[in-house]
Amino acid sequence: xxxxxxxxxxxxxxxxxxxxxxxxxxxxxxxxxxxxxxxxxxxxxxxxxxxxxxxxxxxxxxxxxxxxxxxxxxxxxxxxxxxxxxxxxxxxxxxxxxxxxxxxxxxxxxxx
Amino acid sequence: xxxxxxxxxxxxxxxxxxxxxxxxxxxxxxxxxxxxxxxxxxxxxxxxxxxxxxxxxxxxxxxxxxxxxxxxxxxxxxxxxxxxxxxxxxxxxxxxxxxxxxxxxxxxxxxxxxx
Lengths: 112, 115
Hints:
The complex is a heterodimer of chains A (about 110) and B (about 120). By secondary structure, chain A is mostly beta strands. Chain A contains no helices and eleven strands.
C-alpha cells in the first residue's frame, strides 16, 4: 500500500519559476525524505527531514513538514531545465525499522 | 567508485520462466532492498534484508524470492508464480539503523518484460 500521495501528479513550469510539490501521508512517521528520479533511472536522495523538524534547506531546495496535518512540501526555487524529473516523497514509519514507503510521485517538467 | 550495480539493465522473459536480477553493492551497507515500480504507482517494497542471511517480506512479496548469502549481494528471483512481472525493478542499500532515519542509495534499475 502507498503511504504517501504526491500532489500534483504532474507540473509544468517555465525555467526560473518556483516549483512546489506536496506529499500527504497516513500514519505516524519518524522521518520524511524526498528523492528525484530521471526518466528510466534510479532514484537519488535529495533531503531528509525528521519528525521533530519543521523546515530544512539544501541549496535551492526547501522542505517543510507539518506532522499535525501529515503533510510535507518540497519547493524548488529558480528552476532549471535540468530539474525536469519525477520527485517522490518517502516516509520512515515510527517503529517501522529500516523500511521506507514511497509515494506515487510528481512529474516535473521545466521548459526553456 | 562506490555504488550499486544492477544487471541486466533490460531482460525479456517468456511466461512460465523464472528470472534472477542481480544487485551488487560496494558501499559496505548492511541493509538492502528490492522495489518494484509501475507507471503511476510509485515504488512498492518487495523484500528487504538488514543483515546477511536474514531477509523480510515487503508489501508485495508473492511470486518473488531473494537470498542474502553475502553482504555485497542481494539477488531477486522473479518466479513464474508472479502474475504480472513486467515492471521496472530497483535495488537499494543503506546503513543499518535500528531507529532513526536511513537514506537509500539506488541502483540504475532493471527493466523486465514478459513476452
